[in-house]
Amino acid sequence: MEIIIQPSKQAASITAARVVARLVREKPRAVLGLATGSTPLPLYHELIRMHQEEGLDFSEVTSFNLDEYVGLEAKHEQSYHSFMWQNFFRHINIDPDRVYIPDGMTTNVVASCATYERAIVDAGGIDLQILGIGSDGHIGFNEPTSSFASRTRIKTLTQETVVDNARFFDDDESQVPRHCITMGIGTIMDARSNIMLAFGDGKAEAIAAMVEGPVAAMVPASILQHHQNAKVFIDDCAASQLKLADYYRWVYAGKPEWQQDA
Ligand code: F6R
Fold first, then answer.
1. Res. 260 pLDDT band, cuts 50 70 90
2. How far is CA 228 from each of CA 12, 33, 191, 260, rounded to the nearest angstrom?
3. Which terminus has fewer CB within 10 Å in the chain: N or C?
4. 2-255 has which CATH code?
């Protein structure tokens, strides 16, 4: 795991966006795995800027989102479909036929999840997966104790996640769906590279457990310790509980420039 600590979430997001942009330039048909939530917003903002000002071309990119709430129609304000179109897709030139988001309204969850997994394989597999982390250490909506071998399936959110996400639902926990469809941890681990973003004090404990704690199903993100190409972009606050923070800063400062967005 490579830990990249930056002074602010903007700086960390811009650095992460360069990695995404380099992939898209080198491989126009890249397959991206995308996340929702507040964390990736500055990253999407920078990619939009690169598209608008530098011509970063998404026309042949395929995307797969990590998750979707069960029971919310795509057009619901808080569905992850709406989130992605509102905050990213409508600002770039992605082909809507190449956008995949789990169907939270499916009447056949098992078949729909299997189709999603197959679509990822048919697209050639995910080149780069963007991840946020829950305060309980989840990735996607793989809550603590999720199997490391899991594939796309239905899950129940923890109470902690329901409370965390109530901010998107008028601070009313009762409006937050209890179930979601999420890529599995096995699906995420199959991505050729993973980029984790985390900002703020509220993520410091989860980041320390993920990076420096034991690999354990109680901290789903800790499995990334076993991924061959995982980068963690964090701000000083999210890094505040890392024992080896100075070492990670020292390593990154010593990286040759050509390698910094690789
Ligand atoms: C979202 C997702 C989640 C979030 C996590 C952090 O698609 O998969 O794992 O990344 O809950 O959410 P924020 O960024 O809102 O703190």
1. confident
2. 21, 17, 10, 17
3. C
4. 3.40.50.1360
